[in-house]
Write a structure and sequence with these properties.
By secondary structure, the chain is an alpha/beta fold. The protein has a domain of about 70 residues. The chain is about 30% helix and about 25% strand. The chain has 7 helices and 10 strands. It has a 6-stranded mixed beta sheet with strand order 6-7-8-3-9-10, with helices on both faces. Strands 2-1-4-5 form a 4-stranded antiparallel beta sheet, covered by helices on one side. Helix 2 packs across helix 3, helix 3 crosses helix 4 and helix 6 packs across helix 7. The longest helix is centred in the middle third of the chain and has 16 residues. The radius of gyration is 18 Å and the shape is globular. The C terminus is likely disordered.
Length: about 260
């Protein structure tokens, strides 16, 4: 993949938190127009990597280029949508007012508010105060805010946490629709069974990418039938001489289906 054509291009990224080296020199290319899953156990560095991509993380070394510009630059403010693990909403405002406020900030037309409410299934909560929402509803409101302005890149940190299975399926279907429309999505999760809904995968452990490939090729290479077993197989193989990280395979976009 050409680094200039990639949605995200990272070279030698190092991040220190205190004296701990969280990211030890990471290299990464993320293709455009795909749902790319960033999977790994809690504490492996997923959120730190995502913050570096959106420009909110202080880095010690390396370069992070997003959509052709330096991560965090002013030129990217309306081109990148970011959903954090914690809901980023104003609790003293109703759902619709939260969205109207953020729509003005990103310069999105007022009509987009109704559109993102529908896409995130928040219609019945549109007039509810954000403080009264359940955890899953607050997550969906944060996602709706990230969708405002039709960003070219969506960076979503654990977007399905706290959602029931039906809503999880609906959101992954939405992610596929957005990718089909040309949006690039980087979606983190520690739920390995969500891997099958991604076009390509980045499996992360202890600050390093240990695999970059499609769900199908990952299962075939490890001889397993689910992502969790594949991940464990990769960890076992990582300690053996001659083992290398798989190079990314860029697939055509495919529809998702089945259970999450």
């Amino acid at each position: 993949m050409d680094a200039q054509a990639a949605a995200i291009s990272i070279t030698g990224l190092k991040v220190l938190r205190g004296k701990r080296l969280v990211l030890p020199g990471l290299d990464l290319l993320v293709p455009r127009g795909e749902v790319v899953g960033l999977l790994g156990p809690s504490g492996c560095g997923k959120s730190t990597l995502m913050r570096a991509i959106v420009g909110t993380q202080v880095i010690s070394a390396g370069t992070v280029t997003v959509l052709g510009d330096t991560a965090g630059s002013a030129a990217l403010r309306h081109r990148v949508g970011y959903m954090t693990q914690e809901a980023s909403v104003y609790e003293d405002l109703p759902v619709a007012d939260n969205l109207s406020y953020f729509a003005k900030i990103v310069g999105a037309p007022p009509a987009q508010v109704a559109r993102v409410i529908e896409r995130t299934d928040l219609g019945s909560e549109a007039k509810s105060m954000a403080a009264d929402l359940s955890g899953g509803q607050r997550s969906r409101l944060s996602l709706a805010i990230a969708l405002l302005g039709d960003p070219e890149l969506l960076v979503l940190d654990e977007p399905t946490v706290g959602l029931d299975p039906v809503l999880r399926v609906a959101l992954w279907e939405l992610f596929a629709e957005l990718a089909a429309e040309g949006t690039t999505l980087l979606v983190s999760s520690h739920v390995m069974d969500e891997a099958t809904r991604c076009d390509s995968l980045l499996l992360m452990r202890e600050g390093e990418i240990i695999a970059r490939e499609t769900p199908e090729s990952l299962l075939a290479r490890t001889g397993t039938d689910n992502a969790e077993d594949a991940f464990l197989a990769l960890i076992r193989d990582a300690g053996q001489p001659g083992t290398s990280v798989a190079e990314p395979h860029v697939p055509k976009h495919r529809a998702t289906g089945g259970t999450p």
